[in-house]
Write a structure and sequence with these properties.
With 447 residues, this protein is of the alpha/beta class. The protein contains 15 helices and 19 strands.
């Protein structure tokens, strides 16, 4: 896939030199993992290596002591809802960008599920302009796969791609008509575009609101069977095989789906997939006494599924960890469980929740970072997610061991619907740097 960048004016920055000294430098793209120094000048990375600072620090250079901290490429969030244009009382590009910067995200791919949907060149341009105006993260909009997200007619993907659409999706809406999906994959193949699809069979889902099983029966809630995801995924992959298209499955949540994706990759299909923190950090028991912040799409699954998701990440079957940031206001969540809107915010907790798997030794730190940097960047064809001499200085500096607890009131997202409120975590962003300019600094940190 051709590498592309979003139209983005780098923030103003004097051409002075900054030396990040004695950090643990990790670049999953190249396998770099050393204790050393990294030097930026203006918007770009100049060099890195062991003990560079003495020869590369002219008078006036800023020296940042990074002892005990990790310096890595800025995170690339594969999917988030920013709600602009449309329901901006839930989130805006400005508030979402602030939350993303606090979460170490320097490139963010935003859903086309807005009002109106992002299904035209004009709206792709609008999102790019707003992202440049805010200037806290690089915003890459998805284009809608079908007009109006209605699943009936594919959009002008070629024109939207030229305008800067990073890929094409209908968000959480599955394209029910397989012929439409076939046409979309054929068209996308001709323009080297990616189709991102959320496999959930709408008819099997019915009115379900949580995972189908013993717990849903006990709670008296309509269930969504795991096969609703698996059957839809199997259908999609057969169409991918028929067309030779490039396909990404969004929000894998079941053990069976991991097995299906493994077999598809073994067959040589051009397919990738992602998951989000709730599916490796929580299971259906978290719903407890009808906790509506646990109402998600897809729903929280069994413990066996959660363990399979972790194993799929470690094995490489699951390529990406994304925030799946979906803000909902209080009115949409403070309702009976079956009436509450699905979704959770996740920009600021993406990294520390992924680090739980590192601390539990399920993944190495470079493995976990790869799922949020080079892997999503490569799938989407972005020039991001890696340390490149002469390239943009989009970086994160974080303490992988610092303990803290999630406090929904402290989140920068406009909506506060986190399923992790009160959860103790380990790992905190110290500084986020976009094109050499800090966009977030932890006031409690010394670096």
């Amino acid at each position: 896939m051709t590498k592309k960048t979003a139209p983005h004016d780098d923030p103003p920055h004097p051409s002075h030199r900054v030396v990040y000294r004695q950090a643990r430098l990790i670049d999953p793209a190249s396998g770099l993992d050393i204790i050393g120094d990294l030097i930026t000048e203006g918007h770009n990375i100049i060099d890195w290596g062991a003990n560079l600072w003495a020869d590369a620090s002219p008078e006036g250079a800023e020296i940042i002591d990074c002892t005990g901290l990790v310096l890595a490429p800025g995170l690339v969030d594969f999917r988030a809802w920013l709600c602009e244009p449309g329901p901006e009382h839930k989130e805006t590009i400005a508030t979402g960008s602030r939350a993303a910067a606090a979460g170490g995200i320097t490139s963010l791919c935003c859903s086309p599920v807005t009002n109106p949907p992002i299904d035209s060149v004009a709206l792709i341009g609008f999102v790019h302009r707003r992202g440049r105006e805010v200037g806290l993260t690089r915003i890459h909009p998805y284009g809608a796969l079908t007009r109006g997200l209605e699943g009936c007619e594919i959009t002008e993907m070629g024109l939207m791609q030229q305008a800067g659409a990073v890929a094409f999706t209908d968000g959480p809406q599955m394209v029910r008509n397989p012929q439409i999906l076939r046409h979309a994959l054929n068209y996308a193949r001709g323009i080297d575009a990616l189709i991102v699809h959320h496999p959930q069979d709408i008819d099997l889902m019915g009115d379900g609101v949580m995972n189908e099983g013993e717990l849903s029966t006990r709670l008296g809630l309509a269930g969504i069977p795991a096969v609703a995801e698996v059957i839809a995924l199997e259908r999609d992959l057969r169409i991918v095989e028929l067309t030779g298209g490039t396909y990404h499955a969004a929000n894998i949540s079941t053990a069976q789906s991991v097995a299906v994706m493994r077999r598809a990759k073994e067959r040589g299909l051009h397919v990738t997939c992602d998951t989000a923190p709730p599916y490796f950090a929580l299971n259906e028991l978290a719903i407890g006494d009808y906790r509506t912040y646990m109402r998600l799409s897809p729903p929280l699954r069994r413990e066996e599924d959660r363990q399979a998701i972790i194993a799929g990440l470690a094995e490489g079957v699951i390529d990406v960890i994304c925030s799946d940031h979906l803000p909902q206001d209080q009115d949409a969540k403070r309702l009976p469980f079956a009436q509450a809107k699905p979704g959770a915010v996740g920009l600021e907790t993406l990294l520390p929740l992924a680090l739980e798997m590192v601390h539990n030794r399920a993944l190495s730190l470079p493995q976990a970072l790869a799922k949020m940097t080079v892997s999503p960047a490569d799938i989407l064809g972005l020039t991001a997610g890696r340390l490149t001499r002469g390239g943009h200085a989009d970086l994160i500096l974080f303490d992988p061991d610092r303990p803290w607890s999630v406090d929904e009131d402290s989140l920068l997202s406009k909506s506060k619907n986190t399923p992790f409120d009160g959860r103790p975590l380990q790992g905190r962003i110290v500084r986020t740097i976009l094109a050499g300019t800090p966009t977030y600094r932890d006031q409690e940190a010394s670096a």
